[in-house]
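HUMAN: Mind sharing a backbone?

ASSISTANT:
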Amino acid sequence: MKNNPFKSLLKLSWLMLAAFLMFASCSKDDPVPDPILLEDGFYVFGDATAITDYDFKGLMKTTKNEIDGSDRNSLYELYIAVSKTGGFNIGKVTGGNPTVYGPGEDFAEILEADKIGDEPRGWFARGSASQTSTKFTVPESGLYHVVYDSELSVVVVAKVEWGIIGAATPDGWGTSTPLTSSAFNLNSMSFEINDLILNAGDFKFRYSNGWKIVLEEEVVLVNTNFGGAVDALVPGGDNIPNETPGYYTIKINWSLDNGTTAALTKTDDYTPPAYPEAMYIVGSATAYGWDEPGAHENAIMHKIAGGGDNDGVFWKICHLAGGEGFKLAAAGWVDPNLGHGDVSEFDAEGVEVTENDGNMSVAESGMYIVVLDLRNDLKKVSIKAAEVYGIGDAFGSWDEHAESNLFSVDNTAKTLTSPALAANGNIRMYTRHTWIPDWWNAEFNLYEGVIEYRNNSGDEQAAVAGTAGQVITLHFDDNTGSIN
């Protein structure tokens, strides 16, 4: 078929007109930005990072709200290396159109005194996001956790110093064992410890000794810890089990390409010390007499929570009759079976413990806390006047050892009684002793008239609701009590 020269000329005219209109609409005074050819979402980029423009490697991922463990569609996070030189922004892409965010006027470092609960002890800043090209900056080069909640318009930037915590670790659940950071690098960094003893037990990874950062109190919190599995880390995931005691090399790797991963390598065998499953207090000084240890379940001494080096410590609050004898022994009188001469060391800060027909004895009758430490192949004993405190919402304060929350002791009635509860809220109680590291290590509560102990669990006890004005009375000899 022959070409129609008139149609070709008409087509050429339309193309020239379209080109003219495009040129006219793209003057220097009215530039048209190039569309961002990436999926919709929030991106981190800037000259302080290895990503200087919108890039899939800088795409923030949605994460869990620590409040309930569910995914929050507006909560985004990214771990990324940031230099103290330069800065970065958060960019939003919607339908190819970018919006750039920087720090709002209230974005600032959070001082230690202003941190909330279990927030990290290291440097972090928090505040609003603003549509501005002004950049977020950091005071020190390192790995950072960048968090943004688009619904709240709140940003958090936190320096990451990884550690490991849990019953399997030397410090138990009390504090993290730090991992040593590699040299700063924009593309990859690692955190490592060699020949760390891990016992059988569970653990998690967390940074800067914190569990979470608050974006809005009681509404949105972001996890600063990983659980799940070593080869499948989950923000705020379940505790990671370690079944085989040993010396381990533990490493957390971060890279721009692969994000955060972990590795656990056993390098040598380790045999943990063996402690008795249970210890009991017996004797004429006690409510249990000289019946065989284990015959009275209320005579049992309690383990302390947290695991790690807390294993091997036992405690018991009870009434001791002055001048009468007692012993600390495993069930059935098997070793350890401790009279006065079997003790390696008595606590110089405690009451004097004298010998009474080979047994231990105190001079004055009263309510005491008895603590036994079997660690390091020793048998150490401390006896002090019993101290019990309330803490938390029902007591109106989370301050440890608050004088206003100290229980009163009645040595005649053999009871300890709380001050009136300050508010409606959950009741939490604990005993204090210098050999017990943290308040929650020796926590207990009252359930339908029975005292139940946290013991060596790493988990919090179930909540017990209290009402303002109620008073708690505790009878430790038979582990009963009342809330009235």
In short: The helical segments are 5-25.
